[in-house]
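Sat 14:20. Reprocessing the chain from the morning session after the first attempt stalled halfway. Input below, unchanged.
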Amino acid sequence: MSSTDTPWILLSQCGIGSFYHDAQRLVGVACPSWLCSGLVPLVDGRIAVHHVRVGERCPWSGTRVVDDRPGFAGSHDGGSR
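Finished this time. Tokens:
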């Protein structure tokens, strides 16, 4: 399974993103789950494993985030979503 075969979500659907100082590398997002709060780091472009309650993994953990900012060079990956 390639990285483009996994579930994904658009950055705009997360509501907010955190970027490295050069504004090119997305390093965190607001988890789209209403049970989560705050920013969650990205690991290899995916939402890091985090928990909604003690011992209960958030179902969004592992979801790939696609940067859909207008004009961003990495916003489109050739249509292979």
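The radius of gyration is 13 Å.
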